[in-house]
Design goal:
With 172 residues, the protein is mainly beta. The chain has strands at residues 33-36, 46-53, 64-65, 70-76, 78-83, 86-91, 95-98, 107-110, 117-124, 128-133, 138-143, 156-161. Helices cover 0% and strands 39% of the residues. The N and C termini lie far apart (46 Å).
Length: 172
């Protein structure tokens, strides 16, 4: 049930679920505690969460979106935005747009400051999405829950590499 209004001070920031927690040799680089906002205020076509990062951490891998556009509002702290082939300093009060595209719009926020960083992550929600991860050469194809689908489980999620591609007619 939505209240239409939520105050940032009232949000309960939680670590990501164990199923989505970072794994592997670089897991220590990631933090990304979050509080989901959008569904609590009745948003249907927008996603929004408060993300909190410890110093030296990042919330997610360097990635781009083919369907969903993202915007970030830095509430506290300072760090670095990786965007395409650039590294840009960011600080409290900055507003960042990350439009759809390929590797040229890939992005990642890194807390390079000495204190905790807090930011709003806002996005459009598409029923189908393809993300690319330039650092690892992976891509993800997703047909997922959207706020107006209720409690319908994710219908399709696949992460792979371009090298795994097969011919259209293979196995037919």
């Amino acid at each position: 049930m939505s209240t239409r209004i939520v105050n940032l001070a009232d949000l309960d920031v939680q670590p990501v679920s164990p199923a989505h927690a970072p794994k592997g040799p670089n897991a220590a680089l990631y933090d990304g505690r979050r509080a989901e906002i959008a569904s609590r205020i009745g948003a249907r076509q927008l996603g929004c969460n408060l993300t909190v990062l410890a110093p030296g951490k990042r919330a997610c891998p360097f990635h781009s979106h083919r369907a969903e556009e993202e915007m970030f509002v830095i509430l506290e702290g300072s760090g670095e935005l990786r965007y395409g082939d650039q590294r840009l300093p960011i600080r409290t009060g900055d507003i960042i747009a990350c439009p759809t595209g390929g590797p040229e719009t890939a992005h990642q926020i890194i807390n390079t400051g000495a204190t905790e960083m807090r930011y709003l992550a806002i996005s459009t929600i598409a029923p189908a999405e393809v993300c690319e991860y330039p650092d690892s050469g992976k891509f993800g194809a997703f047909v997922d829950n959207t706020p107006d689908m209720g409690n319908v489980p994710a219908r399709f999620r696949h992460i792979g590499r371009r090298d795994d591609a097969c011919d259209y007619w293979e196995g037919e």
